Amino acid sequence: MSLSKTDRRLETEFSAAVTKIAVLAVLAATTAQYSALPADARVSAHPRKPVQKKGKVAPNVEALQRKAFTCYLQRNYIEAAKLFKQCFDVDPSDVSVNYYLGASALFANDVKTAEHALCRVVVMSPPDSEFSNLAMKSLKQWRKEFHGIEPYSQLENGRLMRWEKGKGPIKVWVSDGLQLPRGFVGPELDSEKCKALYSMFQRPGFFNQLETAVHYVPSYRDMVKNGINDWGWVASEGIVSFEFTDDPTKADVLYFWCPVSGAGSVGRTYYPWTRTSNARCIVHIETEYLRKWGARVPTELRKTSAHEFGHVLGLNQHSNNINDLMAASGKDISYREMTSFSSESAVTKNDYATLRALYELPAGELYSTMGR
Q: Which CATH superfamily is domain 5-141 in?
């Protein structure tokens, strides 16, 4: 990949930025000097204790970073990428390491490594942070090499949330039209009330006593499953795996129905309370909005189901791109589209890149399967 004039200009920008940060890191002998650096552009200026990892003492991160920066400034991008990768292996939550790993790999013509690293920067950072903006700028400047992907931030209250990997498949139960008990239906449900439901789910005969939501149609259940299966590729990507179950008492995720969801939504997902016994992920989908769609019901319900399952998997923040499945609201469609059926998955490459990056990063909150 030869560098154009635009590429050279960006390379100069990268070098200028890294030079400033590296010099400041070297000169930061006191806490006050370190605090003067931009909050989202700090590189470790103080020695870190070696990290214990899998029975071995990890290399000194500060020394690795300085060596990596030296290689970067010397335009030895292959060696810089190698060293930044070692830094990432020690501390994958360091946004600056992820960014400079992406920049070094890009100039070393390792597009795959660059893509993964730059996507992680966007996913782990506030949308308007310095590193997020730089990462998105790189992804857009090399749009062809990165296939036009535009990941989006998943940071909420300073942390990421996702399922724990390697803990068995996520078991999903989709009810055949059942709605939750009175007081828990649609807009009546909130996160606190979910705690009460966890114990109710364990009661013998609880699910047999539930009523069917008004306007529910039996074919809706398979449409919901089709939407969930739009994420079936996550297992082959080594992200997580999921499977359907007919026993709600063994499910990690339960789909219910309601006449009206409330708060302007047609579906809601409630994450399991961590460190709470028998915690589950609860999803409900509205039946009222489906009445207007006619022949397009299978397409719209599949999209709603897939959108909610994207939340289930950990995509708690919406995309600003209306073409993405995980957008807060979809784009306007024509009358012709409204009366037609589409069997295509609504999951976009942006949704894919964002979820992949999320599971490459450590999370502040991990959800565990019940293992039943």
A: Tetratricopeptide repeat domain (1.25.40.10)
Average pLDDT for residues 329-354, to the nearest whole number?
Answer: 64
Among 41-50, 118-127, 203-212, 284-293, the range scoring the smallest mean pLDDT is 41-50
Q: Does domain 163-367 have CATH number 3.40.390.10?
A: yes
Domain boundaries, the chain: 5-141, 163-367
Question: For 32, what's the count of Cα atoms within 13 Å in the CB-facing half-sphere?
Answer: 0
For range 179-191, the mean pLDDT: 94
How many CB atoms are located within 10 Å of the residue 172 CB?
Answer: 21
The pair of three-digit structure tokens given for residue 64, joined into one six-digit string: 């690795």
- pLDDT surpassing 80 at residue 138: yes
Helix segments in the chain, DSSP class H: 5-27, 31-35, 61-73, 77-90, 95-107, 111-124, 130-141, 191-200, 220-229, 297-313, 335-338, 349-358
For the entire predicted model, the pTM comes to 0.82
Q: How many whole angstroms separate alpha carbon 358 and alpha carbon 355?
A: 5
- The pLDDT of residue 317: 96
Contact in structure between 140 and 120 (CB atoms under 8 Å): no
Q: Which long-range contacts (CB under 8 A, 24 or more apart) does 232-240 make?
A: 233/352, 234/313, 234/355, 237/356, 239/165, 239/313, 239/355, 239/356, 239/359, 240/163, 240/165, 240/169, 240/170, 240/313, 240/359
The angle that helices 95-107 and 61-73 make with each other, rounded to 10 degrees, is 30
Mean pLDDT within 340-352 = 75
Q: What is the pLDDT of residue 337?
A: 38
pLDDT of residue 308: 97
pLDDT of residue 220: 97
What's phi and psi for 278, nearest 5 deg?
55, 30
Nearest residue to 6 via CA among 147, 133, 141: 141
Stated length of the chain: 372
Identify which of 295, 370, 309 has the alpha carbon closest to the alpha carbon of residue 340.
Answer: 295
Contact 117, 131 (CB under 8 A): no
Say what the pLDDT of residue 219 is.
Answer: 96
What is the rounded CA–CA span in Å between residue 212 and residue 226?
Answer: 21
